[in-house]
Amino acid sequence: MDDKKNLTEEEQKKIFSKFSQKIENEGFYYFTKNDVIELKNETFSEWNLSPECVEIRLEIASCFNDTKFKKAGNFCVYTDKVKIEKISSLDKYVETISNLDLAENKTRFFRGQQNFAWDAIPSLFREKERIEEEHPLLMGMYRSKPEEFLNLNAFDIISKMQHYGLYTRLMDLTENPLVSLYFACQGSNGNDGRIFIYNVDTYKVKYGCDEEIIEAAKNIFSNKTSENQVYEDDYVFVKADYSNTRISRQFGSFIFPLGTYKEKEVSDVQKMYKNLVELDKTILLIDRNKKHKILEDLKLFGISDATMLAGLDYISKSLTEHNDMLSQTNKLLGYLKNQGRSSFEEKGIKDLPGINSDMMTKVLRNLEKTGKITKERNLYKVN
């Protein structure tokens, strides 16, 4: 930051103006430090500034009471172009979504991500090496379990593979804003979540049963493109057929990139997805400290792990976890009773033999919720 202190006020104003213009021209309406470093040589070279340009820019902005740029999570946001809404409750979220305008000729989709800093990019394109494995991955899964894909068209097959964890070119969206909020509230690792909003020209929205979509999916399986297909864009928004229970419950839709790609072209695809986000002029930041409460409130509206992740795999996992939770709860309560303990610290409990330290946090939270224990500072009291 010493570089900034050596600048005259006039030089600071020049940086202010030049950087703002560069951001405007490049369309970086929200960006990270790395995005700015890429622009550094061209934008800041005459001042020979250090690479922490975002921080410098924010400090300079504060000197002039500028509100054009604002820090949001790991991003700096150009507020002339993008509005930020911090969501700390379900009520606030519903109010915010209800107040967003949508033109008659537009269709709205949502995507929720648990980490605000993550780009919205399909799993297949997140690493360059994966694109070469697209065809082997699809065929490998199909040949391993062909009975799972009976009576499904090519697009439905890819979408089903996507929902069971295979790297694909599809990116999940939903038409239900509560579903996207559920996914944005996942993760308890101290990260804010984010909701992406896509307002799309309705005539550009396709369906999973459309012949052109099925044909494009067939071409991916055969690892080729069709010369007969002409698309206005390099991607389409597709409303999925609800042939899969999980997709149905999540009101699933997708962004479907078209054509074949080589490893060297992946960066272009990544850029395409970042540009798509420019359809999103409102950033919804989900408060990391309120995720658990929001998830509890969503259960009142039928949005929960049980409804979003329906399937035998989830049911099996859920029953196993419930059984383990009950066992751990009984062990804890039995220990406290035998020891005549009326209070305890969490750390001491987690070190006990037979106690699953990872699960104990959930056990304590559940006991608090049911009123069997009360937390006061770092001490739990048995009621």
Task: Please characterize this protein's 3D structure.
There is one protein chain. With 383 residues, this protein is α+β, with helices and mostly antiparallel strands. The protein contains 16 helices and 14 strands. The protein has helices at 2-5, 9-26, 33-44, 53-63, 90-98, 134-144, 154-163, 177-184, 211-221, 245-249, 266-276, 291-298, 305-308, 312-339, 346-350, 357-369, and strands at 30-31, 69-72, 75-78, 83-87, 106-113, 171-174, 193-201, 205-207, 235-239, 252-257, 282-286, 343-345, 373-376, 379-382. The strands form four sheets. It has a four-stranded mixed sheet. Strands 6-10-9-8 form a four-stranded mixed sheet. A three-stranded antiparallel sheet has the order 1-3-2. Helix 9 links the parallel strand 8 (205-207) and strand 9. The longest helix has 28 residues, at 312-339. Residues 1-5, 39-52, 60-65 and 226-231 have low confidence and may be disordered.
